[in-house]
Amino acid sequence: MGTNSFLTLAGSLAASIFWGLQAHTADVDAAIVFAVDFSSSIDPDTADLQRKGHAAALTSPEIVAAIAGNHLGCISVAYFEWASPGRVRKVLPWTNICGLEDAEAAALMIRERGDTGFGRRGRGGTSVSSAIDVASLLLDQFPGRANKKIIDISANGENNDGRPVEPSRVKAIAKGYTINAIAIPAQDENPGRQLASYFADYVIGGPEAFVMTPTDPGDYATALRRKLATEISMNVDPQFPPEADVGFRRGNLSREWGDEQTGDIASSVPKSEFSNQ
Question: Which of 20, 55, 175, 238 is the most exposed place for a label (fewest CB within 10 A)?
């Protein structure tokens, strides 16, 4: 599939999955697209981590306080699931969150409609590039104004389907969007090829971009909550409770991508198918 055909497909999918946007036109502190991996490699345990983790993060006291403490006191979020190019599943259309009640309503939809990991065969590979393209188009179509526009990728693997990540990444950054990620490493991950390093080097980008990774499945919710708090306020020092083993890493953004700012490691650490289930 050619680049133009792919982008036309991505645009059609973005328009169809978020047609009838729920969010009213309004100014918000941040517009955030949660782009969540539901490829064939996402088993029920990992699907639960992602679905329940996002729902818990949105309703946590830390996040509600971060939203309220911003200039406008509102954010807007959308949530979709992705696998191979053309395999996209809507979960939550653009939804404004201006308090706990809004957050609970959004979290309920994510818990009830998000992927469970069952029936994952045949979903195909991991196309990080198409996830960025669809998320970027959704930000293009955001029905309001946002001080920050962020693509939030959650995935357990590198790009292995569709076109390369670089063109998608560069195009999103050129629009002023930030791409952040939470990398879910395999239990037998090769220390010499860590998923977080791949995301830091080849996926994330834009102002203050970073990737987080839990080294234990139980720390996914903590990593996600801290990632969201950092995105909302951008003045949160990435500290974690002692029991949480979470890596925080900024990407090396000093390559040939125009005016991007250099970041350093902050701490160790084409089928066209749309499912609306």
Answer: 20
Instruction: Considering only residues 233 and 141, tell me which one the structure prediction assigns the higher pLDDT.
Output: 141
- pLDDT, mean of residues 74-79: 97
Phi/psi of residue 168, nearest 5 degrees: -65, -45
Q: Which tokens in the block code for residue 182?
A: 């939470």
**List of E strands, 56-120:** 75-82, 87-97
| SS3 per residue for 148-206 | EEEEEEEECCCCCCCCCHHHHHHHHHHCCCEEEEEECCCCCCCCCCCHHHHHHHHCCEC
Residue whose C-alpha is closest to residue 268's, from 204, 193, 190, 215? 215
Residue 201, CA distances (Å) to 141, 185, 257 in order: 28, 16, 13
Which amino acid appears at position 206 of this protein? G
Percent helix, strand, coil in the chain (nearest 5)? 35, 20, 40
Residue 173 one-letter amino acid: I
d(CA 176, CA 235): 19
Q: Judge whether 222 and 182 are in contact, CB under 8 Å.
A: no
Specify whether the backbone of 200 is left (phi greater than 0), alpha (psi in -120 to 50) or beta.
Answer: alpha
- Burial code (b: 16+ CB inside 10 Å, e: under 16) for 228-255 equals bbbbbebeeebebeeebebbbbbbbbee
Length of the chain, please? 277
Q: Is the pLDDT at 129 greater than 60, yes or no?
A: yes
Whether the model pTM is above 0.70: yes
Q: How far apart are CA 21 and CA 1, in angstroms?
A: 29
